[in-house]
Amino acid sequence: MQIIRSRRKTLALYIQPDGQVLVRAPLYLPQSVIDAFIRDKSTWIRAKQDEIRRKNERCGRTGAEGPHRFEPGESFLYLGETYPLELVERQSQPLLFDQAYKLKRAAQPQAQAIFEAWYKAQARALFTHRLDELSAQTSLHYARLRLSSARTRWGSCSSTGTISLNWRLVMAPPAVIDYVIIHELAHSKEKNHSARYWALVERLMPTYRILRKWLKSNGDCLSWP
């Protein structure tokens, strides 16, 4: 638990992404008042911490909960599977992947930027390949691919034919990635989410409802960092 005092007038309690409790308190408020406040909120605190633990279990995360610390024992999602992180003393590149993420120890301070660059490179290559394949199979065409970092949208299709795909999707199972691509390619023909649009999606991908449900239920697992 962390208590931060400042020139504020009220007490505030937060549960951080790793499940730790953070209390913000006025400078001269007695510790006994803070302790009583925390006791009063104990049920709420446990509920929030349990929620974080359940999310980590559902997302297949091991090691430290919450934001990645890029330490050995942590696991990272890629194409729907989790892979552990190892630190190595010597290798030609800062980060290599071979059924495990192998991060050069000297590069550990820059790990977040290195991982993000790796994910984006994989996403661009994979999305381009699948877009071209699915476009050819469906006869639905697009102008270009743009990688997105949007927090609330997995994809979009502009009026000029640019398909934007969230790079975090590369953490999802391949079938889910294909669903989002089909979803956006279908917009090249049907511009809204009408019944005719969904009929087209279903014709192209009969299992789309299952995949859409997976994304709604597990999309919060595809978070970064």
Structure commentary:
This protein is an alpha/beta fold. The protein has 2 domains: 57 residues, no CATH class; 106 residues, Metalloproteases ("zincins"), catalytic domain (Zincin-like, 2-Layer Sandwich). Helix content is 40%, strand content 21%. The protein has a 4-stranded mixed beta sheet with strand order 4-5-7-6, with helices on one face. The protein has a 3-stranded mixed beta sheet with strand order 1-3-2, covered by helices on one side. A 3-stranded mixed beta sheet has the order 8-10-9, covered by helices on one side. β9 and β10 form a beta hairpin. α3 packs across α4 and α4 crosses α6. The longest helix has 28 residues. The two termini are 22 Å apart. The relative contact order is 0.09.
SSE inventory with pairings:
Elements: E1 2-6, E2 12-15, E3 21-26, H1 31-40, H2 42-58, E4 75-78, E5 81-88, E6 95-97, E7 101-104, H3 111-138, E8 144-148, E9 155-157, E10 162-166, H4 174-186, H5 195-204, H6 208-218
Parallel strand pairs: 1-3, 5-7, 8-10
Antiparallel strand pairs: 2-3, 4-5, 6-7, 9-10
